[in-house]
């Protein structure tokens, strides 16, 4: 074909969260059916850095933007690539799809058809005879006599041809019927006795069998799409073959396989009237609102998440939820059951990372660049402990697009560490001075004020922007975070994609930093949180940087929550400080002069944030927006909390649909798009710069 041309050129390839995107030179070899890449064009004569077989691959333009696409090989390997523009992406995608189709068809022609084979998944007992009991030595699998057929050793499995999809569909229909019989047999077992319907082994068998059938159905769907593309000649431009979403609504709660049907007309509930009365975002004023810190009161809310009751009671719901998920599945669009939620929004969780504002303000007081970098590392490592509410891992509310959260902290100037001659005295935050009673409700001249604002700036993908500043000390921090969550089997991983920048205007320094990944472990028993990954902190002006490793616990042995790191001067490659310990317990700092300091996070006093009362908050501020969900969770009324949560989510979907139909873009309130990130609309560095310019002009 004239279209079977070898093409080459530079594309950006995503490596990992740390390295990010890198330019690589790619070559499409149509004759061999290979996509190869090299470090650059000059190294093309050398061995490729990577090679993908295109036979059986799936080429998918991404919906993230108009430049990105992925190449998913039949081996499971994936390249995530980015072209310079939409036109170049389309050129690469169309050529790759043509080459893929050609070599996939060639494999099918060169392999004989696969003969039909029957298989059985026999089960003893039925809906009419559930009373079969197992001997103590029997487990759930042997009780149901799950049989496996093995191919003779040494024989290669031929590639499935498209005209055999009818046979596959028939075999899958048999398997689906047998799987339904298996589920029915489990659910019809008595509630008490030697073998019950709530037996943990049987629930696990029920969950894994359902997950297996869902995975097979998805694979069959991909085969159907490939068969259709072969009949039509080629895939239409822009076609994406992707995994299907779960076929059963995950918003519902299930107990032992029986769905609890919530009332269809939940809008009649009196408790959700306020949610319905909120106007469309396009009708609300999107003008930024100046929050007066004097209206904020010290927060008295203390929702610790140590209750195991809900997790224990809803074990079967979790198992059913797991049966709908697949390894690596993106959980962004999955509606999780209400009982696993924390009683706060994700935006408020970001604010709790500022619970030690004295350490934050003390950064700019460092006597030199080295001291300031070390102080920032100390603040950074102490911020995660308070961000978790209790020992039980629960999930904060997913913020609604346009949702905001405001708060502030007041702290006496005497509680902030000033410049000191030694590391030991300059790094002693353990003793903190409480805010005097007469300072409540008013901004005293001997107090610093740290203000915080967060906004959900995007829904798909879910991106949050947050900003904090201390005007008195000429410092601020701006960050944006895209939370990408994936199902990892018995745990859930959350990647925090984004970047933060700390500005110390007094010194003209900027510190860029990233965030570690978070993992919810042991989601079937007692869920707990673990941090993992490598983060970097850099200050380009001073040449100081920090590398911090959050270590996940090894399968055997090892410590929990371990963290190590070092601060160094890049020009001389000299390590000036090392840190080790646990991010939720004790940290040990060892300085270049031989001094050592310990910071016990469990003894650090927490400065409570100040928040406006609900009656003074806007309709899209986090606590007012989610107040009915929070109140229902506090009362232990899961069904009522689910009603309120679903009402909010449904309203968001309707508004998003309306904007798409009218082609109305969403307008953010406090943050502006800046390249790939988001920046606060009135950051302190712009305010100070404008004031300095005005003063210069007046002089």
TrEMBL record:
Q: Name one GO cellular component term.
A: Golgi apparatus
Q: What is this protein called?
A: Oxysterol-binding protein
Q: Which CDD domains match?
A: PH_ORP10_ORP11 (cd13291)
What's its job?
A: Plays a role in regulating ADIPOQ and FABP4 levels in differentiating adipocytes and is also involved in regulation of adipocyte triglyceride storage. Weakly binds 25-hydroxycholesterol. Interacts with OSBPL9 to function as lipid transfer proteins.
Coiled-coil stretches are none
Q: Domain (PH): give its ranges.
A: 4-101
Q: Name one GO molecular function term.
A: sterol binding
Question: What are the Polar residues biased-composition ranges?
Answer: 117-137, 418-431
A single GO BP: lipid transport
Q: Which Pfam families match?
A: Oxysterol_BP, PH
Family membership noted in the UniProt record:
Belongs to the OSBP family.
Q: What is its main location?
A: membrane
Q: Which PROSITE patterns match?
A: OSBP (PS01013), PH_DOMAIN (PS50003)
Organism of this sequence = Spizella passerina (Chipping sparrow)
Q: What are the UniProt keywords, alphabetically? A: Acetylation, Endosome, Golgi apparatus, Lipid transport, Lipid-binding, Membrane, Transport
Subunit relationships: Heterodimer with OSBPL9.
Subcellular location as annotated: Endomembrane system; Endosome; Golgi apparatus
From the UniProt entry, list the residue stretches annotated as the region Disordered.
Answer: 104-137, 418-438, 638-658
- Give the matching InterPro entries: OSBP_sf (IPR037239), Oxysterol-bd (IPR000648), Oxysterol-bd_CS (IPR018494), PH-like_dom_sf (IPR011993), PH_domain (IPR001849)
> Gene name on record?
Osbpl11
């Amino acid at each position: 074909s004239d279209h079977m041309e070898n093409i080459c050129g530079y594309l950006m390839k995503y490596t990992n969260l740390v390295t990010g995107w890198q330019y690589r030179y790619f070559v499409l070899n149509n004759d061999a059916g290979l996509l190869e890449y090299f470090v650059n064009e000059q190294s093309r004569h050398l061995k490729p850095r990577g090679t993908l077989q295109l036979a059986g691959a799936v080429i998918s333009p991404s919906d993230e933007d108009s430049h990105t696409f992925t190449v998913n090989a039949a081996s499971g390997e994936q390249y995530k690539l980015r072209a310079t523009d939409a036109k170049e992406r389309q050129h690469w995608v169309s050529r790759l799809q043509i080459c893929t189709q050609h070599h996939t068809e060639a494999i099918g022609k060169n392999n004989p058809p696969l003969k039909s084979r029957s298989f059985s998944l026999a089960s003893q007992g039925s809906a009419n005879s559930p009373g079969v009991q197992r001997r103590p030595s029997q487990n759930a699998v042997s009780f149901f006599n799950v049989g496996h057929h093995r191919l003779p050793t040494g024989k290669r499995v031929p590639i499935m041809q498209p005209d055999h999809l009818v046979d596959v569909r028939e075999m899958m229909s048999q398997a689906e019927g047998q799987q339904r019989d298996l589920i029915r047999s489990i659910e019809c077992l008595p509630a008490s006795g030697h073998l019950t319907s709530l037996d943990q082994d049987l629930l696990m068998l029920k969950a894994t069998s359902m997950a297996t059938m869902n995975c097979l159905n998805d694979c069959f769907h991909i085969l159907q799409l490939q068969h259709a593309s072969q009949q039509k000649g080629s895939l239409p431009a822009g076609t994406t073959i992707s995994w299907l979403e779960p076929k059963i609504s995950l918003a519902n709660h299930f107990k032992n396989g029986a769905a609890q049907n919530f009332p269809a007309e939940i809008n009649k509930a009196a408790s959700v009237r306020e949610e319905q009365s909120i106007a469309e975002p396009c009708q609300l004023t999107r003008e930024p609102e100046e929050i007066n810190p004097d209206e904020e009161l010290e927060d008295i809310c203390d929702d610790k998440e140590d209750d195991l009751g809900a997790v224990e009671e809803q074990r079967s719901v979790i198992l059913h939820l797991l049966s709908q998920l697949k390894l690596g599945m993106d959980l962004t669009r999955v509606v999780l059951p209400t009982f696993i939620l924390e009683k706060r929004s994700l935006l408020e969780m970001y604010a709790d990372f500022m619970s030690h504002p004295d350490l934050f303000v003390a950064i700019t007081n460092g006597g030199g660049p080295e001291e300031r970098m070390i102080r920032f590392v100390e603040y950074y490592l102490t911020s995660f402990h308070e961000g978790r509410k209790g020992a039980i891992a629960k999930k904060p509310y997913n913020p609604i697009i346009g949702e905001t959260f405001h708060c502030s902290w007041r702290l006496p100037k005497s509680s902030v560490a000033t410049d000191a001659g030694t590391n030991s005295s300059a790094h002693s935050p353990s003793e903190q001075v409480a805010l005097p009673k007469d300072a409540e409700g008013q901004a005293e001249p001997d107090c610093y004020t740290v203000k915080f604002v967060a906004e959900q700036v995007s829904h798909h993908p879910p991106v949050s922007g947050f900003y904090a500043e201390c005007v008195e000390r000429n410092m601020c921090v701006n960050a944006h975070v895209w939370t990408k969550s994936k199902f990892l089997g018995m745990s859930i991983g959350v990647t925090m994609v984004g970047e933060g920048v700390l500005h110390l205007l007094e010194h003209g320094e900027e510190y860029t930093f990233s965030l570690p990944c978070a993992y919810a472990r042991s989601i079937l028993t007692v869920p707990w949180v673990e941090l993992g990954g490598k983060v970097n902190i850099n200050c380009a002006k001073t040449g100081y940087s920090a590398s911090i490793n959050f270590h996940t616990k090894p399968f055997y042995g090892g410590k929990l929550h371990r963290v190590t790191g070092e601060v160094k001067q890049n020009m001389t490659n000299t390590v000036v400080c090392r840190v080790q310990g646990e991010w939720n317990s004790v940290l040990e700092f060892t300085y270049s002069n031989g001094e050592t300091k310990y910071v016990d996070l469990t003894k650090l006093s927490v400065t409570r944030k100040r928040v406006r009362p609900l009656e003074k908050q806007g309709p899209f501020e986090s606590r007012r927006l989610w107040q009915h969900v929070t109140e229902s969770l506090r009362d232990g009324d899961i069904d009522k909390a689910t009603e309120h949560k679903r009402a909010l989510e449904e309203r968001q979907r309707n508004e998003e649909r309306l904007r798409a139909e009218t082609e109305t873009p969403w307008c953010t309130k406090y943050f502006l798009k800046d390249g790939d990130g988001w920046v606060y609309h009135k950051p302190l560095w712009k305010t100070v710069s404008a004031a300095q310019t005005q003063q210069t002009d007046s002089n």
